Amino acid sequence: MSSERIAVLADDNLYVAPNPMFCTGLTTKGKRCSFLAWPRDCGEWAYIVSRTGILYAIDAGPGWLPEARVQRCDVHTDAPAFCAPEVEPFDPQRHAFLVQPLTDQWVRL
Fold first, then answer.
1. Where are the beta strands (DSSP E) in 1-109?
2. Less crowded by CB within 10 Å, the N or C end of the chain?
3. Pairing of β 99-101 and β 53-59
4. How far apart are CA 102 and CA 49, in angstroms?
5. Residue 57 near residue 9 (C-beta atoms within 8 A)
6. Chain segment 30-55, per-residue pLDDT in tens
7. Is residue 19 a contact partner of residue 6, using CB atoms and an 8 Å limit?
8. Is residue 21 within 8 Å of residue 3, measured between CB atoms?
9. Domain ranges within the chain, ordered by starting residue
C-alpha cells in the first residue's frame, strides 16, 4: 500500500516500519484491510546520532513491538493474513536511505 518507511525505536532496538502502517488482515472480500494498524500510545519523534549520520525515528517506547509485529487493526485480530507483517529489524546497510549523513555543520562524535 505505502512504500514510505520510517525508523522506530522500541525496547532499545531499532526497527523499520511502513508509514502509514496498514492492517495485514484478509477481508471477507479477499483483499487486504485498509484500516490503520499503528499501535496505540506511540511516543515522540527523536534524533538518533551515530558516527556516520543522523536517524530521525519515532521513540515508540516499551510494549510497541509485540503489537506492531502482529500489524492488525481491531476488526481483524483473528482474521487470516493477507500478507506478512512489514515491521523488520533495522539493518544499517539495507536501510541506509533513512540515515542522513553528517555534514560539516554537525559536530563529529
1. 5-10, 13-18, 45-49, 53-59, 88-89, 99-101
2. C
3. antiparallel
4. 9
5. yes
6. 999 999 887 655 678 888 887 778 88
7. yes
8. no
9. 5-101
